Amino acid sequence: MEISKEIEAGQAIYSKPVLSIYDLWVLGISNKYIWKCPTSHLLKHFNQHITSNHLDVGVGTGYFLDHCQFPTGKTRIGLLDLNQNSLDQAAKRIERYQPTQYQYNVLDKLDRSYWIIWITYCQKAARYSARRYCRKILKKAASQCA
Description:
This protein has helices at residues 5-12, 16-34, 39-49, 63-67, 84-93, 130-145; strands at 53-57, 76-81, 100-103. It is mainly α. The protein has one domain (5-61, 75-145). The chain has a three-stranded parallel sheet, with helices on one face.
């Protein structure tokens, strides 16, 4: 997988030491005080939209998958991220679900105007056209499982 220096630098911050404080900083402080959208509010939203067949894009530490309420007991989870540290941490955190990891640069196929894929819905932003691209990845993954 070939990635630009710009993309490499952007994802390099997610080292093991940074991920060890990620939940405290991002979910505990940043969401509440900077984005003005507490993690509990995001988790409620996440729970309203989670399915038992889920591809998580930009996995962070796996917090939301670890704390959400899946609608059924039979759960299939794909983790998609460019950063292997994030994939490993999220996979370990939710190992009870036996997630499948996909290391890929989802931004690779998107126009630069879509580089911010997910902005908290609390600020009335939305998920952009990455959804369509992620559907293609899901279909590809499903065909590999068949």
